[in-house]
Design goal:
The strands form three sheets. The chain has a four-stranded antiparallel sheet, with no helix packed on it. A three-stranded antiparallel sheet has the order 1-2-3, with no helix packed on it. A three-stranded antiparallel sheet has the order 8-9-10, with no helix packed on it. 0% of the residues lie in helices and 48% in strands. It has 135 residues and is mostly beta strands. Strand 2 and strand 3 form a beta hairpin. The protein has a domain of 83 residues: Thrombin, subunit H, CATH 2.40.10. Belongs to the SMP-30/CGR1 family. InterPro entries: 6-blade_b-propeller_TolB-like, SGL. One of its GO terms (molecular function) is calcium ion binding. This is SMP-30/Gluconolactonase/LRE-like region domain-containing protein. It holds the Pfam family SGL.
């Protein structure tokens, strides 16, 4: 289980006991020191973690141990979250936000747009709603 703390640029990892609905073993999974705050988070079927960087213009991929793997840049300063889509959950849609003042960060920024990542070579995971089976 993960918790994204944007204010401290930290993604926390926890052990989760589903039978008892208890979390334990809080630890730092990723502590960012460069541009961009982790905002949304997704996990793929291999356990890799994807973090969406507010004021970072990209989504980054980390392996299950928290080691950086790769990233995808987009034409928006404030990347917010994503969702696994496609028949096999092997594509990703990213969301972004418009600045509070409505002004773009650069001339042709596509703030507020959706971005579609294809050919990721991995499948995502279905959303789990507590108290219900994954759908």
């Amino acid at each position: 289980m993960f918790f994204t703390d944007s204010a401290t640029k930290t993604i926390w990892a926890y052990d989760f006991d589903a039978e008892r609905a208890k979390i334990s073993n809080k630890r730092i999974f990723i502590k960012r020191t460069d541009v961009g705050e982790p905002d949304g988070l997704l996990v793929d079927s291999l356990g890799n973690v994807y973090t969406f960087l507010w004021e970072g213009s990209k989504v980054e991929k980390y392996d299950p141990a928290g080691r950086y793997m790769t990233h995808w840049e987009v034409n928006a300063w404030r990347v917010t979250h994503g969702a696994w889509v496609g028949e096999h959950l092997d594509e990703m849609i990213l969301t972004s936000a418009v600045a509070w003042d409505g002004l773009p960060k650069w001339h042709d920024e596509e703030a507020g747009a959706l971005f579609w990542l294809k050919n990721l070579g991995v499948r995502g995971m279905a959303k789990h709603k507590f108290g219900r089976p994954a759908s």
